[in-house]
Design brief:
Length: 258
């Protein structure tokens, strides 16, 4: 089983694997983000090009239900293009994405990395879904912790590998694997007990320097919280060769009512 079963004409049936840890009826944003990225990446380009920034805006809970996905080029260009995508459920938009696509060229002679590669996934400690967190998305990924872990407050460095395709019958691309994991930055690096505190992201922004290679995505994440009920989750995303992207999430931080 995959995260989504294709129904044709841009429609997809969401499976139980998309469910987030707090509600069996609402999706973790990872799979919808990857579904939007898949649609954006499929838009025709005039030549070799890459998505270098993807922002997903959360307009409301994404239900575990039938979804409709669309995408279009908003600002065409030979070197730089702005793309837009949207997910609707029951005729109501629930998430939108924008992405910048840049024509690629050879810059290998001046390539830089500003952080070292992570220790490989084989050195990590296998971890599962924390007690009290619901099944679905978390069980559809294999997790290996290098430092910190899901359910333990504070910064964390983890590897994750999705064990089901994004869309049934398709091998996930590196971009799709990246977006499936990127929204977990605030979850793995949360500072508080989620049973007492909300730390909900309103968006996800990912800047890519290259598309990852291989099945494993590394997430080196930490969260900062201000004094006025807001915060930011920040992450460096890796493949086994080194860093590939940066992720950021704006957070609503609020103590749950008794």
């Amino acid at each position: 089983m995959a995260f989504y079963e294709p129904l044709g004409a841009g429609r997809y049936a969401s499976t139980r694997h998309t469910a987030g840890p707090w509600s069996a009826e609402s999706q973790h944003l990872g799979p919808p983000s990857a579904l939007l990225a898949r649609e954006l990446a499929a838009l025709p380009a005039s030549g070799p090009a890459a998505l270098v920034r993807v922002t997903v805006e959360i307009l409301g809970p994404v239900p575990v239900a039938e979804l409709e996905v669309s995408a279009a080029v908003e600002r065409p260009g030979r070197s730089v293009e702005l793309l837009r995508g949207e997910i609707s459920a029951g005729g109501r938009p629930v998430a939108r994405a924008s992405a910048w696509r840049i024509a690629t060229s050879d810059s290998a002679s001046v390539r830089t990395d500003d952080v070292p590669p992570l220790a490989p996934p084989a050195t990590g400690t296998p971890t599962g879904r924390p007690e009290g967190w619901g099944p679905g998305y978390l069980d559809a990924l294999e997790w290996r912790a290098l430092a910190g872990r899901l359910g333990t407050p504070g910064p964390a460095t983890v590897w994750a590998r999705q064990t089901v395709p994004l869309v049934a019958g398709e091998e996930p691309t590196g971009l799709q694997r990246l977006l499936v994991v990127a929204d977990s930055g605030n979850g793995v690096s949360g500072l508080f007990d989620p049973r007492r505190w909300l730390f909900i992201n309103t968006e996800l922004t990912v800047h890519l320097t290259r598309e990852p290679v291989g099945e494993w995505i590394g997430l080196d994440a930490h969260t900062v919280v201000g004094a006025n009920g807001t915060g930011t989750a920040l992450s460096v995303l890796h493949d086994e060769s080194g860093p590939v992207a940066r992720g950021a999430q704006a957070l609503l931080v609020r103590e749950r009512q008794a």
